[in-house]
What does this fold into?
Amino acid sequence: KVMAPEQPLQQQVCYTIYNYAWKTGRMTKKIKVRATASVANVSCGFDCLGYAIGDPADILTINLKDYPGVNITLSGSKADTITTVAKYNTAGKAILSLLNSLEINQGFNVHIEKGVPPGSGLGSSAASAAAAVVGVNELLGNPLKLDELLVHGMAGEAVASGEFHADNIAPALFGGMILIRSYDPLDILQLPVPENLFSTAVLPDFSVNTKDARRMLPKRVPLKSAVEQAGHLAGFTLGLYKADFDLLGRSMVDLFAEPVRAELIPGYHIVRQAAMDTGAIGCGISGSGPALFALCDSEKISRKVGIAMVESFKKNGLNSIAYPSPIQRKPPEILG
Ligand code: HSE
It folds into this structure.
Protein backbone atom coordinates (compact mmCIF):
# COMPACT_ATOMS: atom_id res chain seq x y z
CA LYS A 1 0.00 0.00 0.00
CA VAL A 2 2.82 2.38 0.81
CA MET A 3 5.64 1.48 -1.54
CA ALA A 4 6.66 -1.36 -3.83
CA PRO A 5 8.49 -4.31 -2.17
CA GLU A 6 11.42 -3.96 -4.59
CA GLN A 7 12.46 -0.75 -2.80
CA PRO A 8 15.85 -0.70 -0.93
CA LEU A 9 16.11 -2.58 2.35
CA GLN A 10 15.58 0.41 4.68
CA GLN A 11 12.40 1.31 2.81
CA GLN A 12 11.22 -2.29 2.93
CA VAL A 13 11.68 -2.28 6.70
CA CYS A 14 9.49 0.82 6.95
CA TYR A 15 6.98 -0.78 4.64
CA THR A 16 6.93 -3.86 6.85
CA ILE A 17 6.47 -1.90 10.07
CA TYR A 18 3.68 0.05 8.49
CA ASN A 19 1.86 -2.97 7.10
CA TYR A 20 2.37 -4.91 10.32
CA ALA A 21 0.72 -2.09 12.20
CA TRP A 22 -2.07 -1.95 9.67
CA LYS A 23 -2.72 -5.71 9.60
CA THR A 24 -2.50 -6.28 13.35
CA GLY A 25 -4.98 -3.53 13.95
CA ARG A 26 -2.39 -1.47 15.85
CA MET A 27 -2.92 1.23 13.30
CA THR A 28 -6.13 3.18 13.77
CA LYS A 29 -7.52 5.65 11.31
CA LYS A 30 -8.20 8.64 13.51
CA ILE A 31 -6.70 10.11 16.64
CA LYS A 32 -7.10 13.13 18.90
CA VAL A 33 -4.05 14.43 20.79
CA ARG A 34 -3.68 17.25 23.33
CA ALA A 35 -0.30 18.94 23.76
CA THR A 36 0.23 21.77 26.19
CA ALA A 37 1.89 25.16 26.31
CA SER A 38 5.41 25.58 27.65
CA VAL A 39 7.65 28.22 29.19
CA ALA A 40 11.04 28.54 27.50
CA ASN A 41 14.27 30.15 28.76
CA VAL A 42 13.00 30.27 32.38
CA SER A 43 15.15 33.43 32.71
CA CYS A 44 18.54 31.79 33.20
CA GLY A 45 18.49 29.21 30.39
CA PHE A 46 18.17 31.04 27.06
CA ASP A 47 17.37 28.41 24.39
CA CYS A 48 18.36 25.58 26.74
CA LEU A 49 15.77 25.43 29.56
CA GLY A 50 12.01 25.00 29.45
CA TYR A 51 9.06 23.44 31.21
CA ALA A 52 5.57 22.35 30.21
CA ILE A 53 2.41 23.73 31.82
CA GLY A 54 -1.02 22.12 32.02
CA ASP A 55 -3.00 24.83 30.29
CA PRO A 56 -3.56 26.22 27.62
CA ALA A 57 -3.22 23.42 25.05
CA ASP A 58 -3.70 22.61 21.37
CA ILE A 59 -5.88 19.67 20.34
CA LEU A 60 -5.12 17.98 17.03
CA THR A 61 -7.46 15.56 15.27
CA ILE A 62 -5.56 13.52 12.70
CA ASN A 63 -7.07 11.18 10.10
CA LEU A 64 -5.41 8.83 7.65
CA LYS A 65 -6.41 9.67 4.10
CA ASP A 66 -6.32 7.61 0.93
CA TYR A 67 -3.87 9.73 -1.03
CA PRO A 68 -0.52 11.31 -0.10
CA GLY A 69 -0.04 14.80 1.30
CA VAL A 70 -0.84 16.59 4.53
CA ASN A 71 -3.99 18.73 4.61
CA ILE A 72 -4.27 21.24 7.44
CA THR A 73 -7.37 22.96 8.79
CA LEU A 74 -7.45 25.28 11.79
CA SER A 75 -9.81 26.69 14.39
CA GLY A 76 -9.51 28.42 17.77
CA SER A 77 -7.31 31.17 19.14
CA LYS A 78 -5.87 33.41 16.40
CA ALA A 79 -6.13 30.47 13.97
CA ASP A 80 -6.63 32.86 11.06
CA THR A 81 -3.02 34.06 11.47
CA ILE A 82 -1.59 30.58 10.79
CA THR A 83 -0.82 29.13 7.37
CA THR A 84 -2.50 25.92 6.25
CA VAL A 85 0.29 25.17 3.74
CA ALA A 86 1.76 22.00 5.26
CA LYS A 87 5.45 22.72 4.65
CA TYR A 88 5.15 26.17 6.28
CA ASN A 89 2.89 25.05 9.13
CA THR A 90 4.67 23.81 12.27
CA ALA A 91 2.50 20.70 12.63
CA GLY A 92 2.55 20.03 8.88
CA LYS A 93 6.33 20.44 8.62
CA ALA A 94 6.87 18.16 11.64
CA ILE A 95 4.69 15.45 10.06
CA LEU A 96 6.42 15.77 6.67
CA SER A 97 9.80 15.44 8.39
CA LEU A 98 8.66 12.31 10.24
CA LEU A 99 7.17 10.70 7.10
CA ASN A 100 10.26 11.57 5.11
CA SER A 101 12.54 9.87 7.66
CA LEU A 102 10.44 6.70 7.53
CA GLU A 103 10.05 6.99 3.76
CA ILE A 104 6.33 6.57 4.12
CA ASN A 105 4.04 8.25 1.66
CA GLN A 106 0.84 8.08 3.72
CA GLY A 107 -1.46 11.11 3.60
CA PHE A 108 -3.11 12.78 6.62
CA ASN A 109 -5.88 15.26 7.32
CA VAL A 110 -4.96 17.33 10.36
CA HIS A 111 -7.33 19.63 12.19
CA ILE A 112 -5.60 21.95 14.67
CA GLU A 113 -7.72 23.48 17.40
CA LYS A 114 -5.52 26.27 18.75
CA GLY A 115 -5.72 26.79 22.48
CA VAL A 116 -2.22 28.24 22.70
CA PRO A 117 -2.33 31.53 20.78
CA PRO A 118 0.47 32.03 18.23
CA GLY A 119 2.90 34.83 19.10
CA SER A 120 2.21 34.39 22.82
CA GLY A 121 5.61 33.15 24.04
CA LEU A 122 3.86 30.06 25.39
CA GLY A 123 5.20 27.58 22.85
CA SER A 124 2.24 27.70 20.48
CA SER A 125 4.08 26.17 17.54
CA ALA A 126 5.70 23.55 19.79
CA ALA A 127 2.31 22.43 21.13
CA SER A 128 1.02 21.86 17.58
CA ALA A 129 4.23 20.15 16.46
CA ALA A 130 4.37 17.88 19.53
CA ALA A 131 0.75 16.78 19.16
CA ALA A 132 1.30 16.23 15.42
CA VAL A 133 4.29 13.91 15.73
CA VAL A 134 2.80 11.97 18.64
CA GLY A 135 -0.50 11.55 16.78
CA VAL A 136 0.99 10.50 13.46
CA ASN A 137 3.44 8.12 15.12
CA GLU A 138 0.56 6.53 17.03
CA LEU A 139 -1.52 6.19 13.84
CA LEU A 140 1.43 4.44 12.18
CA GLY A 141 1.68 1.91 15.03
CA ASN A 142 4.48 3.72 16.91
CA PRO A 143 7.48 2.98 14.65
CA LEU A 144 9.43 5.69 16.52
CA LYS A 145 10.13 6.09 20.23
CA LEU A 146 9.14 9.33 21.96
CA ASP A 147 12.69 10.70 21.98
CA GLU A 148 13.05 9.92 18.26
CA LEU A 149 10.15 12.27 17.57
CA LEU A 150 12.05 15.29 18.87
CA VAL A 151 14.02 16.12 15.72
CA HIS A 152 10.80 16.12 13.69
CA GLY A 153 9.10 18.40 16.22
CA MET A 154 12.15 20.68 16.04
CA ALA A 155 11.87 20.78 12.23
CA GLY A 156 8.29 22.01 12.69
CA GLU A 157 9.28 24.53 15.37
CA ALA A 158 12.01 25.94 13.09
CA VAL A 159 9.33 27.04 10.59
CA ALA A 160 7.95 29.47 13.19
CA SER A 161 11.12 30.75 14.82
CA GLY A 162 13.46 30.65 11.83
CA GLU A 163 16.00 28.63 13.83
CA PHE A 164 16.28 25.26 15.53
CA HIS A 165 15.68 25.53 19.25
CA ALA A 166 14.18 22.89 21.49
CA ASP A 167 13.32 24.68 24.73
CA ASN A 168 9.59 24.63 23.91
CA ILE A 169 9.28 21.47 21.82
CA ALA A 170 11.24 19.22 24.21
CA PRO A 171 9.07 20.09 27.26
CA ALA A 172 5.91 19.88 25.10
CA LEU A 173 6.96 16.41 23.95
CA PHE A 174 8.40 14.90 27.14
CA GLY A 175 6.72 16.98 29.86
CA GLY A 176 8.55 18.26 32.93
CA MET A 177 11.53 20.61 33.21
CA ILE A 178 14.03 20.06 30.41
CA LEU A 179 17.64 21.11 30.03
CA ILE A 180 19.14 21.03 26.54
CA ARG A 181 22.77 20.48 27.49
CA SER A 182 23.89 20.39 23.86
CA TYR A 183 22.37 20.88 20.42
CA ASP A 184 25.16 19.16 18.50
CA PRO A 185 25.00 16.37 19.40
CA LEU A 186 21.52 16.75 20.81
CA ASP A 187 21.55 15.99 24.54
CA ILE A 188 18.24 16.46 26.34
CA LEU A 189 18.09 16.08 30.11
CA GLN A 190 15.02 15.79 32.31
CA LEU A 191 15.51 17.79 35.54
CA PRO A 192 13.71 17.02 38.81
CA VAL A 193 10.68 19.14 39.64
CA PRO A 194 10.04 19.78 43.36
CA GLU A 195 6.57 18.61 44.31
CA ASN A 196 5.23 22.00 45.33
CA LEU A 197 6.67 24.00 42.45
CA PHE A 198 3.88 25.80 40.58
CA SER A 199 3.84 28.14 37.62
CA THR A 200 1.73 31.08 36.57
CA ALA A 201 1.88 32.27 32.98
CA VAL A 202 0.19 35.59 32.23
CA LEU A 203 -0.55 36.49 28.64
CA PRO A 204 -1.25 40.14 27.76
CA ASP A 205 -3.53 40.82 24.81
CA PHE A 206 -1.00 41.30 22.01
CA SER A 207 1.41 39.17 19.99
CA VAL A 208 5.16 39.10 19.50
CA ASN A 209 6.60 37.35 16.47
CA THR A 210 9.32 34.92 17.60
CA LYS A 211 11.46 35.54 14.48
CA ASP A 212 11.41 39.32 15.18
CA ALA A 213 12.14 38.79 18.88
CA ARG A 214 15.16 36.64 17.98
CA ARG A 215 16.49 39.25 15.54
CA MET A 216 16.65 41.76 18.43
CA LEU A 217 19.06 39.61 20.39
CA PRO A 218 22.74 40.49 20.67
CA LYS A 219 24.95 38.33 18.44
CA ARG A 220 27.70 38.45 21.09
CA VAL A 221 27.62 38.78 24.85
CA PRO A 222 30.42 40.02 27.12
CA LEU A 223 32.44 37.27 28.79
CA LYS A 224 31.44 38.68 32.22
CA SER A 225 27.72 38.22 31.39
CA ALA A 226 28.33 34.70 30.03
CA VAL A 227 30.11 33.74 33.26
CA GLU A 228 27.33 35.19 35.41
CA GLN A 229 24.62 33.48 33.33
CA ALA A 230 26.40 30.11 33.53
CA GLY A 231 26.42 30.50 37.31
CA HIS A 232 22.70 31.22 37.37
CA LEU A 233 21.83 28.19 35.22
CA ALA A 234 23.97 25.92 37.38
CA GLY A 235 22.38 27.44 40.51
CA PHE A 236 18.87 26.90 39.13
CA THR A 237 19.65 23.26 38.34
CA LEU A 238 21.00 22.68 41.84
CA GLY A 239 17.96 24.50 43.27
CA LEU A 240 15.69 21.98 41.53
CA TYR A 241 17.70 19.04 42.90
CA LYS A 242 17.65 20.41 46.43
CA ALA A 243 14.11 21.87 46.21
CA ASP A 244 15.79 25.07 47.42
CA PHE A 245 13.36 27.80 46.38
CA ASP A 246 15.60 30.67 47.56
CA LEU A 247 18.37 29.38 45.31
CA LEU A 248 15.91 29.01 42.41
CA GLY A 249 14.79 32.62 42.92
CA ARG A 250 18.36 33.99 43.13
CA SER A 251 19.19 32.14 39.92
CA MET A 252 16.25 33.38 37.84
CA VAL A 253 18.20 36.15 36.16
CA ASP A 254 18.45 36.79 32.43
CA LEU A 255 21.32 38.91 31.13
CA PHE A 256 20.86 37.91 27.49
CA ALA A 257 17.28 38.33 26.27
CA GLU A 258 15.33 40.15 28.98
CA PRO A 259 17.26 43.46 28.74
CA VAL A 260 16.26 43.90 25.07
CA ARG A 261 12.91 42.11 25.02
CA ALA A 262 11.48 43.82 28.12
CA GLU A 263 10.97 46.89 25.95
CA LEU A 264 8.39 44.98 23.88
CA ILE A 265 6.12 44.53 26.91
CA PRO A 266 4.46 47.68 28.31
CA GLY A 267 4.83 47.81 32.09
CA TYR A 268 7.08 44.72 32.16
CA HIS A 269 9.13 45.72 35.21
CA ILE A 270 6.03 46.84 37.15
CA VAL A 271 4.14 43.61 36.44
CA ARG A 272 7.22 41.59 37.38
CA GLN A 273 7.51 43.50 40.64
CA ALA A 274 3.81 42.84 41.37
CA ALA A 275 4.52 39.10 41.02
CA MET A 276 7.51 39.29 43.34
CA ASP A 277 5.60 41.39 45.92
CA THR A 278 2.84 38.76 45.94
CA GLY A 279 5.28 35.98 46.79
CA ALA A 280 6.64 34.60 43.50
CA ILE A 281 9.98 32.81 43.70
CA GLY A 282 10.99 34.51 40.46
CA CYS A 283 9.38 36.04 37.37
CA GLY A 284 10.49 36.72 33.80
CA ILE A 285 9.55 36.70 30.14
CA SER A 286 8.14 33.41 28.89
CA GLY A 287 10.09 32.47 25.76
CA SER A 288 10.13 35.42 23.40
CA GLY A 289 7.06 36.98 25.09
CA PRO A 290 4.78 38.79 25.50
CA ALA A 291 3.63 36.26 28.15
CA LEU A 292 5.34 36.48 31.53
CA PHE A 293 5.81 33.54 33.82
CA ALA A 294 6.33 33.25 37.56
CA LEU A 295 7.40 30.26 39.62
CA CYS A 296 5.76 29.86 43.04
CA ASP A 297 6.04 27.52 46.01
CA SER A 298 2.33 26.65 46.29
CA GLU A 299 -0.79 26.47 44.19
CA LYS A 300 -2.43 29.16 46.32
CA ILE A 301 0.41 31.63 45.76
CA SER A 302 0.48 30.85 42.03
CA ARG A 303 -3.19 31.86 41.81
CA LYS A 304 -2.63 35.05 43.83
CA VAL A 305 0.40 35.95 41.74
CA GLY A 306 -1.63 35.45 38.55
CA ILE A 307 -4.34 37.81 39.82
CA ALA A 308 -1.76 40.43 40.89
CA MET A 309 -0.05 40.31 37.48
CA VAL A 310 -3.36 40.62 35.59
CA GLU A 311 -4.28 43.65 37.76
CA SER A 312 -0.89 45.19 37.17
CA PHE A 313 -1.14 44.72 33.39
CA LYS A 314 -4.60 46.32 33.58
CA LYS A 315 -3.10 49.42 35.25
CA ASN A 316 -0.73 49.54 32.29
CA GLY A 317 -3.64 49.48 29.85
CA LEU A 318 -3.48 45.81 28.88
CA ASN A 319 -5.98 43.01 29.31
CA SER A 320 -4.38 39.68 30.13
CA ILE A 321 -5.18 36.09 31.07
CA ALA A 322 -3.49 34.13 33.87
CA TYR A 323 -2.76 30.41 33.58
CA PRO A 324 -1.81 29.09 37.04
CA SER A 325 -0.71 25.48 36.74
CA PRO A 326 1.49 22.77 38.17
CA ILE A 327 4.43 21.80 35.97
CA GLN A 328 2.98 19.43 33.36
CA ARG A 329 4.95 16.24 33.84
CA LYS A 330 3.48 14.08 31.08
CA PRO A 331 3.90 13.85 27.30
CA PRO A 332 0.99 14.84 25.02
CA GLU A 333 -2.21 13.07 25.95
CA ILE A 334 -4.06 10.84 23.51
CA LEU A 335 -7.71 11.72 23.96
CA GLY A 336 -9.08 9.01 21.71
N1 HSE B 1 14.28 30.30 23.41
C1 HSE B 1 13.38 30.87 22.43
C2 HSE B 1 13.60 32.36 22.38
C3 HSE B 1 11.98 30.56 22.80
O1 HSE B 1 13.72 32.97 23.44
O2 HSE B 1 13.66 32.92 21.28
C4 HSE B 1 10.96 31.09 21.82
O3 HSE B 1 9.66 30.95 22.40
About this structure: The pocket of L-homoserine is lined by residues 40-41, 46-47, 121, 161, 165, 167-168, 210, 213-214, 257, 287-288 (CB under 6 Å).
